[in-house]
Amino acid sequence: MPYRILVADDEPDVCALLKDTLTMQGYAVSCAESGAAALTAAARQPDLILLDIGMPGLDGLDVCRRIREYVACPILFLTARVEDADKIKAFAAGGDDYITKPFSLDELSARVGAHLRRQQRAVQSGGRAAARVLFAGDLTVDYAACAATVGGQAVPLAKKEWEILAFLSQNPGQVFDKERIYEALWGYEGEGSANVVAEHIKRLRKKLGAAGAHIQTVWGLGYKWVSSL
To answer: What is the pLDDT of residues 109-167, one digit of tens each?
Structure first.
């Protein structure tokens, strides 16, 4: 069964070019020419997404943030933006790669193939099991399922609580202040205050119970994850 690729770009010529190119390489390609259409198409769980940032209305960054709630496949941004700040926003939104326009079709095809091979190796080496980590205190974090259990019991987490848990536990020992966590999870354009991070961590610790001690407060600096208790 061929890999399924979603191309989301508001330029019909770009969509047609990429669809023709990737179809000739044996992929099953579908296209979406707006952010709203991309949201709908992503629900069908493609194996890889090529996502234009500069779509009107719901842009690629917004689409990526929304679909990362339920889509785990590689997302490669296509954009004419070349500033480092734009790249940081793209990765913070949940992107896996960043390809600037105009791009070489050979390079794009090579990157698509590399990401799909990497994903296949992950599946062959254990897939979901490899993404499940057991910490001290009977806490299990399943990054593939976006879920956590304590003592075998599921912990009901809100979206941002899960994102904070995943972010800190995947960066053990590193200290992050509230502003850094806010930028990573809410984005640079988040309409709020970094103080909301402390409230989410407070609720997260309460839900985790004794296992919440993995999240340590470093007074005056921020928070860090401690793997062992």
So the answer is: 998 998 888 877 665 554 444 456 778 888 988 877 788 999 888 999 888 899 899 88
For residues 185 and 158, the answer to whether their CB atoms sit within 8 Å is no
- In angstroms, the CA 219 to CA 216 distance is 9
Q: Which amino acid is residue 60, in one-letter code?
A: G
Q: What is the pLDDT, as a whole number, of residue 189?
A: 56
Q: pTM score, two decimals?
A: 0.57
Give the amino acid at 149. T
Positive/negative CA dihedral, 38, 42, 44, 47: positive
Q: Which CATH architecture has domain 129-225?
A: Orthogonal Bundle (1.10)
- Token pair for residue 154? 């599921």
Q: Which residue has the tokens 């943030």?
A: 65
Q: Do residues 34 and 58 make contact, with C-beta atoms less than 8 angstroms apart? A: yes
User: Helix (H, G, I), strand (E, B), or coil: what is residue 118?
Assistant: helix
Whether 205 has a pLDDT exceeding 90, the answer reads yes
Which pLDDT score, from 0 to 100, does residue 122 have?
Answer: 60
Cα distance between residue 142 and residue 81, in whole Å: 34
Note the Cα 80 to chain centre separation in Å: 21
Residue 159 CA to residue 75 CA, distance in Å, equals 20
> In CATH, what number does 4-124 get?
3.40.50.2300
Beta-strand relationship, 153-154 and 147-150: antiparallel
* Cα 89 from Cα 87, distance rounded (Å): 5
